[in-house]
Amino acid sequence: MRPEMTTASLDTAARTSAERGALARARLLRGLLPALSLALVLLAIAWLNPRAISYFGFSLMLNLAIPIALATIAQMFVIAGNELDLSIGTFVGFVGCVTATWLKDAPLIGAAILLGSIGVYALLGALIHLRNLPSIVVTLGMSFVWQGLAILVLPKPGGKAPDWLLGLMAFKPPFVPFPIIAALVIGLIVHFGLMRTSYGVILRGSGGNPAALGRAGWSLLKTKIVLFALAGLFGVLSGMALIGITTSADANIGNGYTLLAIAGVILGGGEFVGGRVSPIGAVIGALTLALAASPLLTFMHIPPDWQVAANGAILIIVLAARVLISRRER
Amino acid sequence: MPEGNADIIRLNGAEKHFGAVRALGGVDFHVGPGECVGLVGHNGAGKSTLMHMVAGTLVPDSGQIGVHGDTEDNYSVSRAQQLGIRCVFQELSLCPNLSVAENTRINHASLRGFGWRRKAAELIAAKLDEIFPGHSISASDIVGDLSIGRRQMVEVARAFTVTQDRLDLVILDEPTSSLDAHTAGQLLAFVRRFVAGGKSCILISHVLGEVLRNADRIVVMRDGKVVVADAASAFDRDRLVTAMGGAEARQKIAAQIAAAKPAASPLRVRARPAAQKDGTDLVACAGEIIGLAGLAGHGQTDLLLAIFTAASRARAGIEVTAPVALVAGDRQSDGIFPQWSIAENIGIRSLARLRSGLLISPQREAELAAFWQKKIGIRTPDMNNNIFSLSGGNQQKALFARALGSDAQIVLMDDPMRGVDIGTKLEVYDLVREEAARGRTFLWYTTETEELDNCDHIYVFKNGRIVANLGRDELTEEKIIQSSFGDAA
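YS: structure for the whole thing
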């Protein structure tokens, strides 16, 4: 991975490369951890129910993976700036309700509402930066606002997804199930945007050392607005994808996504502070959670009453493994 | 004015106040093209504040800034960058989550578009090769994985990279503090080459030899003012030390302390810093005020914290024979409970005595608070007010009351007078001497040399070790500066 060192440097070179090799190994291990945990869950499923490992089985098990992955990416943008979004779940629900009503009946108004809601997210970012408010408080408040709006738009479960959206989400490519392809595409696009572009560096730097970024003349207000707007954008995509799959909406449909998204980011190798996030890891984390949620636990014959707790136990095990590995890195 | 002859930067009558503290009092300062200006002074002399103004990160309360001969009215960081002024700050300003190349990109808005990663990597690698040949840092290394020394190398090299904007002046604030002798030598040699090429540098260093050998002109600051500015050849070590320390005699309170000193008192603390190689111990007996001197961050706080831990849990090399209390230096983060009242903040160290049954007795808490309000003079109408209703100096008094009101016979003070007004200081000095006369022991780390006049005995620290051990009669400011700046101690 690393270019060979050509400079011969005193007697420290040997020690340096050894210590560097250890660091690189630890980093690689940490980078692979999300993939490892996914593989582990897959192995467990294959062992419990070999028939599940098939085109049809994956399409079924990963049914809801796309909206979860999109919501996780939304949360990841917020976490990249050292903030936390507790409203992403109800926001996804609100978007779902708008998608199943306005977007179908009056597409222009529906699109305007969704664009406006992204604007609201951007404004929240500005507010949090300018007034130095804790994002947890602001977004917790907003979660009730989105929930209330969702109920206003769709007082009781119903509505219908636009046909084009239904068609898109029902797409059945040959050989590889659609959710896997979609997850791959989402991960790669966001990876390119956040990890490879020159402005992506600034966005991540705003989480790593905001003071240094300010000293270099960058606007921290702008980075925060951009990060929150991106979170809003991916929240909208998540809500639309969700309705494309479920075909109709309910004001509470996204409520579980808030914690699922946070867990996905952390499972994927992200950290709450310091701008350390990984888009591909986050998508893998979301897939792992989607698989570990109901399919695995159902195959394990764990009664539904216990599934939520079992899900939490899986999270704790994976996160504990991560802590152990990062500690060895020190 | 033709640009070639103009000063790169000129500050006239720059003043800056932080609350009641005057950080800069009317400083004139300039840097011409092709010169390396050395800037020296003790902690808190105003060097950093001055440099923040040159770099555009602080705006002076009054005074003028001119760059390349033109007066700048809206001087800022980005303006300074455009005008070719860069600063390597003392505290690292790299993003630990990004790679070396990505950190370079942050300082260069023009590094973007297709192929920016390769360009940034080549730019920083070339500069690292130029300044630190054989550095073994790769542009793809994540900064958080690098040692502190290598981070400093990256930071220095980054300041010298050029893309779109011009580069005329680089401020190096303690650039060698984390470098070993070899890399420090490489850097200083590069600085000489840079200056020989017609560019300029400001070099701030506590290693006086570095400044004397590499600067063309030396500016000495003290108490927020420039006291001497002269060609480097006009200085030698002694003249620098004298200029930094202030030659004027200080009236001392020595007599009264010496008189009050009991002949033989029981041992209270015997401690050896972890980095100490020889057998030197810090020894404190009952009734003594022991000063911990030296430059900031050279192991004084670490030793105080080690003594504090040793009081409850045995620790190798440290012997503590009585209860201990600590007065924190950074009161906002380490001292105060922000949501609590003044009385609660004072009582927290003495909860065992304030208890009645299982609960804290509000009455006893109030009594303790009232006693110390009177004794130490905390200015508030009601001790049940929130601690933040007090001024900074009075908050610090409350922290002293917390320590002195406890059963602790040993009081550790971690530079507690930072940012406290002089009136409060004098009151607290009196109190400390009074309590010492009653048999309490004080270990007092301070960055303000005048405060050492209150001490019976002074240990000077450098690089985590005790390098000098001065009795009260041997104490002079020159001696402290000599030992804390000792190049090869």
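YS: worth flagging: The two ends of chain B are 48 Å apart (CA to CA).
IM: good catch. Also The CA atoms of residues 56 and 79 of chain B lie 8 Å apart.
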